[in-house]
Amino acid sequence: MVVGVGTVELFIPEARSLKDKRSVVRSVVQRVQNQFHISVAEVESLDVLQTATIGFAVVTNDSRLANSILSKVVDAVEGYYLAEVTRSDLEVLHV
Questions:
Q1: Under 8 Å between Cβ of 95 and 1
Q2: What is the CATH number of the domain that holds 66?
Q3: Helix, coil or strand: residue 71
Q4: How many domains does the structure of the chain reveal?
């Protein structure tokens, strides 16, 4: 079994309240879930106004497929233009 895990740190400059931030985060999470059918959630910086960290995971039997999906998720989040991706980390684990 292969587990792919990734995080994307977002900078949301137009967020003036936590409500603004949560709106952007919710949109990113829903789009990723709908497009890739993987597990996605906000995992860090929950109460920081203009920063959010989104975590996502995929389980498969092929490490190349896991790596490909993780990379496509990062590219998709960048392509949504809802927030600036400041950092991304991807890891593929063989369990």
A1: yes
A2: 3.30.70.1120
A3: helix
A4: 1
By the 8 A CB rule, do 45 and 71 touch? no
Residue 54 has pLDDT above 90, yes or no: yes
Please indicate, yes or no, if residue 95 is contained in any of the structural domains.
no
Residue ranges making up the domain that contains 64: 2-90
For residues 28 and 15, is the Cβ–Cβ distance under 8 A? no
**How far apart (Å, rounded) are the C-alpha atoms in residues 64 and 44?**
27
**Using one digit for the tens of pLDDT, what is the confidence trace for 68-89?**
999 999 999 999 999 999 999 9
Phi, psi of 20 (to 5 degrees): -60, -45
C-alpha to C-alpha distances, 18 to 9, 32, 48, nearest whole angstrom = 16, 21, 8
- The answer to whether 52 touches 25, Cβ cutoff 8 Å, is yes
- The Cα 17–Cα 27 span in angstroms is 16
pTM beyond 0.70: the answer is yes
